[in-house]
Specification:
Elements lengths: L2 H15 L11 E6 L2 E7 L5 H12 L6 E7 L13 E4 L16 H4 L7 E4 L11 E4 L20 E8 L1 H8 L3 E2 L2 E12 L6 E9 L14 H16 L4 H8 L7 E5 L11 E3 L5 H9 L5 E4 L10 E6 L2
Parallel strand pairs: 11-12
Antiparallel strand pairs: 1-2, 1-9, 2-7, 3-4, 3-9, 4-6, 5-6, 5-7, 8-9, 10-11, 10-14, 13-14
Amino acid sequence: MKKSALRIMFLIALLLAAGLISSAANNPIVYIRTEVGVIVVEVYQDKAPLTSANFLKYVDAKRYDDSIFHRTVTMANQPNNAVKIEVIQAAELPPEKCFAPIPLERTSVTGLKHLDGTISMARNGPDTATSSFFICIGDQPELDFGGKRNNDGQGFAAFGKVVSGMERVKKIQQAPSEGQTLKPPVKILSAGRPTGPEGVAVQHVLIAFKGSIPEETVTRSQDEAKALALEIFERAKKGEDFDALVKKYTNDEYPGVYRMANFGLPLNKENKEYSRAGMVWSFGEVSFGLPVGGIGLAVYDPMSSKYGWHIIKRLE
């Protein structure tokens, strides 16, 4: 057995002994919030513990916040490559934000494959990966150990899979570019682990303004909407009948009740659940941060709450 493989096995044993990795049932979920929406990833710490621990270290330290996807690789923009792939890639972080390079966890050791939606570490030579990762669009076997995309034949370290948001991965891949460089890059606003309960049920009042919901005829200005939203928020906090407030004021459909499952969890279709990943960002953040019966406000923001102000009450 090669020394590199022995080294990886030894490190895995240390992580197991320290309780830093666990079974597939406990694989972490990570959201990658971009300016085109949320991508949700399951991290295979049971199969690729070293690479997973490295990625989670960056996530937990908030190193990916305010970073970018800078590269798109399509069948049309790699004319000089005999072996073609399709991926999007997050840029390497500045040196001061990077941790030490990690050993290459080869797919011949982990048993993972570069399939559609696989997330994997970018690298130069073996054992050089730090912060840059990529996501596969379609199956990419030439990125596995023994593949021909990299001349050394060692492949890349796959460590997880997109479980929600592949439509956003594809949208990034098709974004404007010059060669393989996204122009402009696609912002990664934040990356983190889910917080809050597994699911919630909420009722809300949406206060929109002219132009915030194109299909709706709303005439109030943005300033008028803000003033009304703050008024309703205060009235709701004082105990006024919330359902009556929704019925009178909302620019969404009455009764404005939504059930949501947290990132990465299966949806209860009988319960008409939505995924948190598919909701307006601030709506989910406020909803999952409330206690049952609590009242919260998601303020208007063009990126995180684009339809207006949401006054939210958690029902369950």
